Amino acid sequence: MIDCSVGIVTYNSARTIASTLSALRQHWPPELSGHVYVVDNGSTDETLALVEQAAAQDGPLPVTLIHSAQGNCGYGAAHNQALPHLDSRIHVLMNPDINILNPDSVRALVQRLDREPQTGLVMPKIVDPDGQVQHLARRDLTILDLGLRYLPGRLLARRERYHTYQDHDYDQPFAIEFASGCLMALRTADCRAIGGFDPRYFLYAEDADLSRAVRARGLAVFYDPAAVVEHAWSRGSYRSFKMFRIHFHSLWLYFRKWGFKLA
Predict the structure, then answer these.
(1) Torsion angle defined by CA atoms of residues 83, 117, 183 and 246, in that order, rounded to the nearest 10 degrees
(2) Cα torsion at 185, 68, 128, 250 (round to 10°)?
(3) What is the structure's pLDDT at 259?
(4) Averaged over 70-83, what is the pLDDT?
(5) Is 137 in contact with 220 (CB distance < 8 Å)?
(6) Would you tell me how many other CB atoms lie within 10 Å of the CB of residue 213?
(7) CA 184 to CA 110: how far, in whole Å?
(8) N or C: more exposed end of the chain, with fewer CB within 10 A?
(9) Superfamily (CATH H level) for 2-258
(10) What is the domain partition of the chain in residue ranges?
(11) Which residues lie closer than 8 Å to 171 by C-beta, 6 or more apart?
(12) Per-residue pLDDT tens for 221-260?
């Protein structure tokens, strides 16, 4: 059994996947054995060639390419296709546009899960390419908080700060309700017990759902700034009607499953 596996889902991710895999290998903690699984959701750009090139390279962090058996089946369902391949203690779920900045980016997440059996899911501090903190630790989704996403930025700003824990110090660790799926770590055994992501979510809210599923097992969700990663963030959900519909459907699934909460 290895220490830590990493799952990455790609879909036309040629712009970022090579640098993501390179950073993982460059900054992987030398004391941890690892393996990266890239599940491709039917890319038509150069993604496959770039991942195959990385997989052909020798090194202490092997890369395996998995072709989605279901075409573009969605983010969570694609991640789940890596589960049968895993032989690890800890599993990291991450986006193809994440850059690991130093060995502590992975090490700190593994260490927290190893020393705190009551913690089931942990996310790092996430910064943009300019080093600004992205406030992606969240409280549980509510109807009010979702409405804020479609209103001018100054409206209800206090509520937005509350929803994203900006009343907390992002330089200190703290328990949270909802961890961002751009990078999260959990024990592989817990991931399997939960069943991975709920495959009904094509995109969006699958991370909120997984966070709730972890907490339903009596485990805590944690934000740990000892781990820092860089994220090239894009608000695609709000830039096209198609993505808006997918987002709305995911939110409808989430509230039907966990209950409608106004605020």
Answers:
(1) 70
(2) -80
(3) 83
(4) 92
(5) no
(6) 22
(7) 11
(8) N
(9) Spore Coat Polysaccharide Biosynthesis Protein SpsA; Chain A (3.90.550.10)
(10) 2-258
(11) 125, 225
(12) 999 999 999 998 755 445 566 777 877 788 888 999 888 7
